[in-house]
Structure formats: C-alpha cells, structure tokens
Design goal:
- This protein has 597 residues and is mainly alpha-helical.
- It has one domain: Up-down Bundle (Amino acid/polyamine transporter I), CATH 1.20.1740.
- The protein is built from 25 helices and no strands.
- It starts with a helix and ends in a 9-residue tail after the last helix.
- It is a multi-pass membrane protein.
- Keywords: Cell membrane, Ion transport, Membrane, Sodium, Sodium transport, Symport, Transmembrane, Transmembrane helix, Transport.
Length: 597
C-alpha cells in the first residue's frame, strides 16, 4: 500500500521515540537482575496494569478477534475464552496474592519456595524453564506471523512483509533489551494511550457512518445475539456463503459441546495460575500482594477499548467491504479483514496514526514476551548452572544476548506455521493442556513434590506434540482432555512413587502463601509448634467471587460490542449487570484485600 509522507513521518517518529527512551533508561536497568526484569519492585500497580493491558492488546490477537466477530457476531465474544481470557479473574480473586507472596524473580525461581529435595527441585526448575521458553518462542512466532500479515497490506511494497517484520522486531529488541522492564513499561504506557485513542476514533467513525439497520442488512439472523443452542444457527449462504465453510472447518457449528469443552479447559488452566511468561513477571514486579491483585483485576477494565476497536473494524468491513468479499477466493484469510478495512476507508494522517497504534500493539506484546523469556535463560540457566557468582551487571549484559536468541528461534518457528490460528491453537489447546494439571496441584495438594511436578509437565509437553500428530482429525480443544489426563497421570505417579517434600519446606510455604486445598498434614505439623495456625477456609468466598468476576469480565466485552453495532437494549442490560457485579465485588473482594504485608 502506498502511504502519504505524513503517515510515514508519524511511523518513523514513533519508532525513534521508543529507541531513544530505551537508550536513556539503560543505566538504571543495568544495576541488577531484579532492576532489569522487575523494575526493583517499585513500579506502582496502575502503571503495570496499563503495561499488562497493552501487552495483551496485541496485533495478531486483534486480527483474530476481528475475524471471529466478523464471522460469528456477538457469539464471537465467547471465543476468547479459548485462551482463556477470564483467567484474569482467578488471578485477581486469589492467585495473584499467592504468587506475589513468594518474592521470586521468575517461575523457575518460585520452585525453590515449594520444593526442597535437591533432585526434584532441579528437575522442576528445568522443566519450567523448558515450558517458559517454548511458550515465549511460540508467542514470538505468533507475533511475527501477525505482523508480517499486517505489513503485507499496510506498508509500501518496496520491501517484503517478512523484511518489515524483521526490522520492526529488531527495533523492539533494541529498546527492550537496553532498558529492561522499565523501558517496556514506559513504552507500553505510551502505546496503551495510543491504542485507546485509536479505539475511540475507529468506534466513533463506525457509529457515525453506519446504522444498526446497515449492519442487519449484511448479517444473518442471530448474528447480533449472544445466545446459542446446541448448534450455532448462523446461515451465511445468502450473503457470504464461504463463511459457512469456515465455520464448518473450524468446528464451531455444534457450538454448545464446543462451549462446554472450552469452559472445562478454561477453568482448569485458570486454576493453574499464571504461565511463566510476562503474566507472572508483571505479578512479581508489583510492590506487594494487594497491588498484584489490583493489577490483575483492573487489566480487564483497561481492555474495554479494545472491543470498541474490534467491533468498529468489523462494522466497517461488513457494510463497506462485503460486496468485495463475495468476489474473494473462498480460501481468503479473514484474519486480514482488519488491515483491508483500514486501507480502504481511513484518510491520510489518521491512517498513519492507526498504523502507529497497531505497531505499538505489536511491540508492546513482543517486548514483554522477550523480556520475560530472557529472564529464564539468564536467571535459571546461565546464572544457576554456568556462572553462579558473577557481578549482577554481567548477567544484565548476557540478557541482551538471551533476548536475541529467544526471538531468533521464534522467528524461525513462524516460517513453519501456516496461520495465526495454527500457532494460537497449539499454544492454548496443546501446550497449555500439559501445563494445567501439575500447576493446579502445586497450589492445592501438599503431597505434590518436585519429581511429580517434573513428570507431569514433561508428560504434558510431550503429549502436546505427539497427540495432535496421532489424531490430526481432531482440533486442539478436542484433544485438551487427553493431554490433561496424561499430564495428571504423570504428576500423580511421579509424586506418589517418590518421597514427599520435607515438612519444614512445606510449612514455610504454607505460612507465606496461605493457600487453600488439601493441606491438612502440613497444617497439623505447624500447629504442633504454633497453635495460632489455622486452615485457610476462604475457598467458598473465592469461588463465589470467581463466578461474579467472570460475569463482570464478560460484560466488559459485550457492552462495547453492542454499543458499536448500536444494539442499545442489550447494551444497557449488560451494563446494568456489570454495575451489579461491580457492587458485589467491591464488598466481597476489594474491601477484603490485604492492606499491608
């Protein structure tokens, strides 16, 4: 696409700004690993909230969301539960506080608070590093694939899309590696501001050019309804018949069975806690457990504008682009609806701002991912096994190399992936299927030991590669129970066939974290020397808050969706539900948070 000089100037100005900030922040970040990767745990929670929300506001994910809302309408609001997006609710209710109480630097470092048997501890640390690097590399591939697709539509054809993607990745690497998490958080705040402004502009643009009747004329019956039966009941044949083929190919026609599988998977993965990526890093970077919980809760609120943007793009595409889409090849990639719409309907100047906004979205996700991945290579591999007694500044310098290494592998991996959906499917259905079982039990079952954790994680990782190859006719979400079950067997077998962790370690963990679950033997051990120790019985309140919180979270998705498509009656109903849930959570969650540690 040919861009006006004004649009190109805005893009260049933005890229230069982030590089300059990374350069000037390098000295403070280089003081220690804690300063480099966690900002010295001095950053206020609301700044980390904006950074975390910006990291989740990624370009590849936004392109995918546009495609699912375009095809499935309001029912597409359920599909992000594949990740699951409502895991933020589990974090805000109780898991963020549990994670932050550890005081660890990384997920691998966290293992030293839970396990003490030397063999089991080393095995558990190593397998977390393996999982973290697989996760980070996969997300790097996911981001690179999305950026290349976006560049193929938006940027001038002077260079190949992959060349543009590689250049932008290099810029992200430079400022993120120079300034560490401080650079990441600061640029994320700028990017988040840009993205919010962009969302409002696109939403306003869509609502002033399009009426509810315009949208109804180009969508099938039921497109604007959240509700569904056993089947999806969306018939695109009179309008865009190729979309029926896509629905059948993706396996969502029998929507209720798929929804139940998605809920099962979502709850299990959420109970496992944050994955060892930038989610956990942000929690560990907060100043105390209370701020960790607040950060997780308010991320959902901060992502409200994203759905204005997504629905605005969908509305513009449906009304102004449907006639062109009828002429497209049936194999047209609907993940590219977003860039096609902006290319066709946005004027000079605003187009440059939009491109900057989406580059910001990409770079925000990418810089957070590589910063978190480098932490595992440096702290849990290089420092622990290769150079344990070096000066902290030496480790920070090695972090630069680690960042480039992680990204290089991710970019290479992306060349073997056909689409964003392929990468996302393996991450959320395959890899996370093997993560859930051992990480649920590490919080809720005292008898889990390091050997069991290792066996469960390795069973899951291997299964996530092997089972999809053995059963290619099934989707990742359908294979999730099998991967989870094999991982659970590995976890239980490894734990029960090896000796338990010593009670002193388990007792110290229970005192610090105060989890609920099957911790009876540990509580009795502690009570022998301290009668004030009592069993944590907060689980009924936590489960109640999770139900209310998931509803609260979902309303933050559907209210902006209904607003932009101008379905005002369901919008006000959902807004009322959100206010009611907010009132309940104020009483049962916010008012009960710890005031100090």
């Amino acid at each position: 696409m040919e861009l006006h000089s004004l649009d190109l100037s805005l893009i260049v100005l933005y890229l230069c700004t982030v590089l300059v900030f990374g350069y000037f922040n390098r000295r403070k970040a280089g003081q220690s690993l804690e300063s480099y990767f966690l900002g010295g745990r001095k950053v206020p929670w609301y700044l980390i909230t904006m950074s975390n929300a910006s990291s989740m506001f990624d370009i590849a994910g936004t392109m995918w969301l546009v495609s699912v809302v375009f095809i499935y309408g309001a029912k597409g609001a359920w599909l992000p539960w594949l990740w699951p997006t409502f895991n933020q609710v589990f974090l805000m209710v109780y898991l963020s506080e549990w994670v932050r109480r550890s005081g660890a630097l990384t997920g691998g470092d966290w293992m030293t608070t839970r396990f003490s048997n030397k063999t089991g501890l080393e095995m558990s640390r190593l397998v977390v590093v393996v999982f973290a690097l697989l996760s980070v590399v996969s997300f790097s591939a996911y981001a690179f694939k999305g950026l290349a697709g976006f560049a193929s539509i938006f940027l001038p054809t002077i260079l190949e899309p992959t060349t543009y993607a590689a250049g932008l990745i290099l810029i992200s690497l430079l400022y993120a590696s120079m300034g560490g998490i401080r650079s990441v958080i600061f640029t994320d705040i700028i990017q988040f501001t840009l993205l919010c402004a962009l969302s409002v502009v696109i939403g306003y643009y869509a609502m002033t050019l399009i009426s509810a009747e315009d949208i109804q004329a180009v969508t099938p019956n039921g497109w604007s309804s959240l509700w569904f039966g056993r089947e999806l009941d969306l018939d695109w044949d009179p309008l865009l018949p190729q979309l029926n083929d896509i629905i059948e190919l993706q396996g969502y026609e029998l929507f209720f069975p798929f929804f139940m599988m998605m809920m099962l998977k979502g709850v299990l993965v959420s109970l496992a806690g944050p994955a060892p990526n930038f989610d956990m890093q942000r929690l560990l970077a907060t100043r105390n457990p209370r701020e960790a919980a607040l950060m997780s809760g308010f991320v959902s609120l901060a992502l409200f504008p994203r759905w204005i943007l997504v629905t605005g793009i969908v509305a513009l595409g449906l009304v102004f682009y449907s006639s062109d889409l009828r002429l497209q090849d049936p194999a047209f990639d609907y993940e590219l609806v977003l860039p096609h719409v902006i290319r066709e309907f946005v004027p000079i100047g605003l187009k440059g701002l939009i491109i900057v906004g989406f580059l910001a979205a990409f770079m925000s996700t990418f810089d957070s991912t590589i910063n978190a991945g480098a932490a595992y290579l440096v702290n849990d591999v290089y420092k622990r096994y290769l150079r344990p007694h070096q000066d902290e500044r030496v480790y920070v310098k090695f972090s630069y190399l680690a960042s480039f290494l992680v990204v290089g592998i991710g970019v290479a991996l992306s060349l073997f992936m056909e689409s964003i959906n392929d990468i996302m499917g393996w991450i959320v259905g395959g890899l996370w299927g093997g993560y859930a079982a051992p990480n649920i039990l590490k919080w809720h079952w005292w008898r889990l030991n390091g050997v069991g954790y290792f066996c469960g994680m390795m069973s899951g990782i291997v299964s996530s590669f092997v089972i999809p190859e053995l059963f290619p006719q099934f989707s990742y979400i359908q294979l999730f129970p099998a991967i989870f079950f094999l991982s659970l067997l590995g976890t239980l077998g490894g734990s029960l066939l090896s000796r338990p962790e010593d009670m002193d370690t388990l007792g110290a963990f229970y005192r610090k974290v105060r989890p609920w679950g099957h911790w009876g033997p540990v509580v009795r051990f502690l009570q022998d020397s301290d009668e004030s120790i009592v069993t944590n019985r907060d689980w009924p309140r936590h489960l109640f808050n999770i139900v209310v919180g998931v509803t609260w979270h979902f309303m933050l998705v559907v209210v902006p969706l209904f607003l932009v498509v101008q379905e005002f009656k369901p919008m006000w109903i959902c807004a009322g539900i959100w206010f009611l849930c907010s009132f309940i959570l104020k009483r049962t969650w916010f008012d009960r948070l710890e005031r100090a540690e």
